[in-house]
FAD-binding domain-containing protein (Dissophora globulifera), 506 residues
Amino acid sequence: MSTPPSVAGSTSTTPPRPTKAKVLIVGAGIGGVVLALLFERAGISYEIFERAKKVVPLGSAISLGPNVMYLFEQLGLAEEIQAHSKDIKDSAQYNDNLELIGAHIYSHHNERYGYAVNIIPRSIFYEIVERRVPREKIHYGTKVLSLMQNREGVMIRTWDNQTHHGDILVGADGAYSAVRQSLYMQLDKKGVLPPTDKERLPFTNTCLVGTTNVLEGEKFNFLDREECYFISVVAKNKPYTWVLFSTRDRRICWMVVQHLSKKSVKDNDSFRNSEWGPEAADVMAKEVRDFPLPENMTMGELIDLTPKELISKVMLEEKLFETWYGGRTVLLGDACHKMHPAAGLGAVSAIHDAVVLASRLFELPSTELGDLEKAFSAYKGERYPMAVKSYESSKTMAKLIAQSWINVIVRAVTKHMPLFLWLKVMDSMMSYRPQVTFLPLVPDRGTIKPTKQISLELAKKFNHAGSDASSSVTSVTSSSVAPSVASSAVAPSVASSAAAPPATSA
């Protein structure tokens, strides 16, 4: 990523005061609630609209490394997150005869980047963030049916026939984003939507995920080790890989990935726009019960020790969209980049989006459409190259658990990879460590310094200048970012009401 002009051409070091824009956020997944918390700290007006009556963050563990922990230190959440986490020091990979076929080391993270990689149950992390967002600002059980936007503002209409007005609409509603679908229909009518953005989300895997109850007894004494127990098993002659992480409170977060053939992709395609119910999870759970695990366990034992409501079956789609915004609407997280979970960068990328978008909106000089488009362009200009890197890293890490002949070669190569090459891979993944511009900057403690990035340079500049919130607004935009294909005024459109699997939504 090329180094931008000095704070995108601005010479002022006066920290801006928060924008007066009203932001409507659709989606209360991880990306949506992190963005809301950042708006709360920045003093930006917002509301969240979530179609679920209660967000149950289904899934397994989430890894929070140096690339996001500096942000959570800024927010005062780092200690609580670490109190519920285990550090990853190493990982081991086995075949289904439980023969060791590979290992990776993560113990250098603290020294090189200032933080270890923290493994925390997704549900606990979500609760830590969500409870800091005022309850009255999240409208649960509120499905958005349609949206309108023009030069003056945005309006959404919800299932109860209520209308809500704002200056900006953020689509943080997951891989099957209704906001994205509506925006894309509008742009397609104008003939400005890239052909690739019209294509369906591709997927080659389905996944069964869950988190056990607290596990007691001598059989589970291996969970007492201070660091995270992180293993994966790659089957030789069946299309499955299964992964385990241990947590601070003696639970196991687990995931079984089914690698689909072309025929099985077609068979699963009918579920693309609908949620799998518990029956589908039950069927897959029965198929994988006998899969062996180290410590004299089987997947069936872990499934039996997992509450049924915490087991879900999801598709693992992968797609990087070209169009991230149009008019007064902007996308975030899975709505604009859906990644394979192998590298643990899906939620992290959504958090990065929230950091950069919140910083850009904080410094808005006005709610005029031209200023919004400059801010959205700068947001995409910083995030898109990093999303490409994360997307490619996720695909590469996915090859370590997939099963074609090329994946066997990849595993063989990485098994004998020199440490310095592995560290270079990690350096690339962990060097992007953005912080928000409107909170005191946390000094970076890593020996491998962060890569140059616009948002971090802004944070350094504004923190150096002080934090006088009463100072005049300074607009900071990147002159090197190409304009969006979107035009200014966008016609009304009805958002798609098709349901989508919410478990992996950012």
Observations:
- Residues 369-399 form the longest helix (31 residues).
- Confidence is low (pLDDT under 50) at residues 1-15, 263-267, 401-413, 467-506.
- The radius of gyration is 22 Å.
- The CA atoms of residues 134 and 478 lie 33 Å apart.
